[in-house]
Give the backbone structure.
Amino acid sequence: MRDSIAHRLRVEVDGTVQGVGFRPFVYRLARELELAGWISNKSDGLLIEVEGEAGAVETFLHRLETDAPASARVETLMTAVIPAQGGISFSICPSTGSGQRTLVIPPDLATCLDCRRELADPTDRRFRYPFLTCTQCGPRFSLLTAIPYDRPNTTMAGFGLCSACRTEYEDETDRRFHAEPIACPACGPHVILWDEEGRDVAGGDEALHKAAALIREGFIVAVKGLGGFQLWVDAGPEEAVQRLRSRKRRPDKPFALLFPSVESVRASCVLSPEEETFLRSPQAPIVLVRKRQEADLAEAVSPGNPYIGAMLPATPLHYLLMEDLQRPVVATSGNRSEEPIVIDEREALIRLKGIADAFLVHNRPIARPVDDSVIRVFPAGPEPKSKPKMNVVLLRRARGFVPQAIRLGENMRQGRTSDPVLAVGGHLKNTVAMLCGDRVVMSQHVGDLSTVEAVLAFRQVVDDLQRLLQVAPQTIACDRHPDYRSSVFARELAAALSVPLVPVQHHHAHVASCMAEHGIDGEVLGIAWDGAGYGLDGQIWGGEFLIASYEGFTRFAHLRPFRLPGGEAAMREPIRTAAALLWDIMGEEMPAHRLPRWKPPHNQQVQLAMLLRTGVASPWTTSMGRLFDGVASLTGLCHSASFEGQAAMAVEFAAERARQSGGDPAAGYSMDLRPGPSTAKGWVVDWRPMVSAIVDDLRVGSSAELIAARFHAGIVEVMLRVAREAGLERVILTGGCFQNAYLLRLAQHRLAEAGFTVYSHCLAPPNDGGLSLGQAVVAAHHADGPSI
Ligand SMILES: [Zn+2]
Ligand SMILES: [Zn+2]
Ligand SMILES: [Zn+2]
């Protein structure tokens, strides 16, 4: 019996609190503190009522936040005192499920410490079992087939629980209470090793040992992981990694590495405490870290690149294999270049034929492909006190992060006729998003929509998002580029559903995406620098300064346009863009012009001059990414690129080398800021004085490192001048160019020093992977605001 001082509280907990072991945790806590009441799932969080002595209720509230399971994230905790009801027990109410729509679908989480202990304990019944999991960890999104998140709605539906597992599953005090994907060797999935033709080689533990042995011998093994197949090869021997490169037709783009432990990451890389925290986090992403010169890794892992993508095992299967291997391995997406990741073992035999020498597979189906996420962590520039000390940039948002909703600012929390909005993203690094009320759920990384397989995967992701969220879009948003496969699809879908289609300009979407994740609204100066986006005038934009709000934008300034001789070819061959820049400052002298590190074959130079003279097949662009390309080629850092961003990365790394070698910070090249042509408002950033200065520097033998540093300093100075002209306090830094840590830090530092409030990305990628979020919020405002 409770005495008269009993307090009863109603507590609403929002955030990542479903599917992370929160209910059993609350149950145990309430029992420990002798509180009565109950807990139940609600649409977007948990509802708790607790009753007991005032001090105990207070302790309960405190420990709800401090002792929560590691993977849980409490966003808001709302409490209200309600009349006491008496009672002596605490219970967990079953989820109602019926008609209750939830936006909270838990992401996949790395194996927790408790499970790892069991995995290594010979007396445990799940000793060395590659599929052990509990409420605190394991697959969720990658095996969810419908909502609510209950076992029949997962790909574990076909595995009946044995009596031992069932007891755990039904015991409210157990760590596996309602852990939907639990299994054990008696009732769960199993691994099997296939040869390259799909013939059984070994099963169980033997399959794991044999797979590890093959990798040690330099063979390529396709491993069915959590969200799809990965291709594994020993990261030590040069020829093994080269073989994977040539079979995958991926000549230069860096491979991610899986390490057995943090210690082994440290042996090969310089690791900051923050980077280590992310490596060990439940999201367990690939973290870009600086490679040690003495690292015992094949150069082919990340040729010419001072960074490598490192990750730690995230599943029991990965732990077991790495325990055997005890050395870093390449673990890259199981696909041919740029195709979506393979998730089905039969399909793997076909699509990875000729790449993998063996297949380590299992019989737990994967519901949808989910790639590994990629992040970069680095110190922010010296900033005003209130700003975070670290930048975390998500380069690829997938496993561990998706489908975590992004909460929008207060201004978005009203009913809108446009809601829900489906946004289909761009063309490269495609993602899809659904906006409902005050939240946006972004899909996992789909990839480049250049192949039939990728477009099919994209359509599946669109269907999937609607089905999982149980919503039908009332508005569809897409890029303004009429020929993007995503835009074509959006037009068809909008017509079929008879809902409005809102095409959103590419760079406006980039800016809105960054605003949305910071929950800000009103007018900002958006600096959107990337490789290419379709402009309002039909030209290729990419060096843009927009005065923007969710409702619309004006183009306040942009780079002086230059031609891309040969169009698409210029994107792969920066040597062409360099020719265009030189043509603009020296005209007919260009075909005979030679520079110390820029010497195209004479006939190519003549042919480029012809294209530039006539403009044939040579579209105009204002792209900052292409300006980086031009500088990369002029300085001899990169004349020809095999993946997007390669040339720009070479310029970044050169500037970084200049910084590390010490000396005075390089003075920036100056650029002119001119009023635009009379028909248009705004400013033009004229890069010609800079290119002339680069040519002069090359002639006197300046290093590529110095030129790269002066280039970065120059574009940041002109950024500052434009920001002063615009006169808005808030500045957004967005677009693929801001994956460049050197540029981002310098820009943040200079702008903050000059009194601007600077925003950059941390929840959505700055690259085109973030477009869907921006499209969604712009379209949500579209129905209520002026047209864009
Ligand atoms: Zn666990
Ligand atoms: Zn079992
Ligand atoms: Zn872009």
Observations:
- Residues 506, 510, 530, 533, 735-736, 768 surround zinc ion (ligand 3) (CB under 6 Å).
